[in-house]
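re the bet — no i am not wrong, look at it urself. input seq straight from the record:
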Amino acid sequence: MRDESRNRPMAPRGFGAPRELVTRRAFLAGGAGVFASACAGRPFRRTTSASPFAGDFDLLHSRLAADYCFFDQKQTDWRAVGDLFRPKADEVPDAKAFMVLAEEVLETLYDPHTHLGSNRSDSWRLPPFDVWAEWQGSRAVITEVRRRSRAENAGVTAGQEAISINGIAIRTAVERRMPKFLRKPDPLAEQWALLSVLAGRHDDRRVLSTRAPGDDRAVERQLEDGRAAAGHSGGFEARWLRPGLAYMHFSSFSDPELVGLFDRSLEDFRAAHALLMDVRDNSGGDTAVALPILGRLVAERRQYAWMAKRQGLGLSARWPEFIQSRGPWTFTRKVVVTVNHWSESMAEGVAMALSSIGRARVVGTTMAGLGAGVRRFHLPTSGLDVQYSAEPIYQLSGHSRSDFVPEVVIRMEGASESGVDPILAAAIAEMDI
């Protein structure tokens, strides 16, 4: 398993449309050890069912019980999930109702990398959508807004406090959205719930009330429904930022043709003194695309990560992952990688890999925090596909990929008012050319 893609294009809304796969920061943390008893011991209660969808539920629950890789980090009582939802599966009348149930089941894991491959028009979006916020004491403070998004167009900026969403106080909305069946409180679950209520549902016309620092007034901001616009319109962009400084932006690492595009652009930039690789707003992709690109930046085979997988009640021994040198020549000059909270999955892997081997410095915010490679399986009766976190990925230091922090951390407060892209400015300064 090497596919780490999280994002797919949205089809028209409605039952059965491919789910929008955007993301988000460290909801996940990998680690070896013994898994919680929620996955061991007696199975959940099964009954003879007249519903043909009960078999899909059994497959969904048992497959994750056997293969999901973060039960040692989650507080989810997975057996209790089965005990509650299995009787409901016995009564499911149709595929649409089963999708509702399956979404509720997967949400108990509060993992944006684990989800159905399709959605209804009223499904919750996968967090984060276009606003990143964090708890600072009792306040939900916005720390980044996705570039060129509907939230940015509505005047939402980093530094503002989120007061309410659709007329509901943020704290109340988060409490209602908290994952069920937690054995004990988990700050990661609360963070997931915060980003989820800010993301809203696909058919929502979100009204977000915010308050600027030092201002007692709350301002209502209309955030129209629809997909947030990405910071870049194309899948790949390559240009000179200034003499000697080459720039490449990657919207994803999903298209196999990207390797050829990169090679041709690198040939054009052969005389560059430095290369800036921008993986902000990058939806992820596949190592089969990303690793050949990284292979043009190393002169020899280099280990860049450790991986593991479920093995019984724990995780397997970790194995090394490598970058293979590739191409007629190697770009050996300075490289800087820019990231943000919407650098997802494989984009996180690219930044972490180049940093871990000392080949690049990373500039930006923390990233989406998707700490595993994924697997997928099919539910035959409902026709649904399920993606789940399967293989935790670790930095060479042994820490989870989701814990990766850029060498140069940028705070986004005040960025909108200044009109300057602080991440890009800091990256250029790192080039020192």
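see?? The longest strand covers residues 384-394. told u. also The longest helix spans residues 54-67. so pay up
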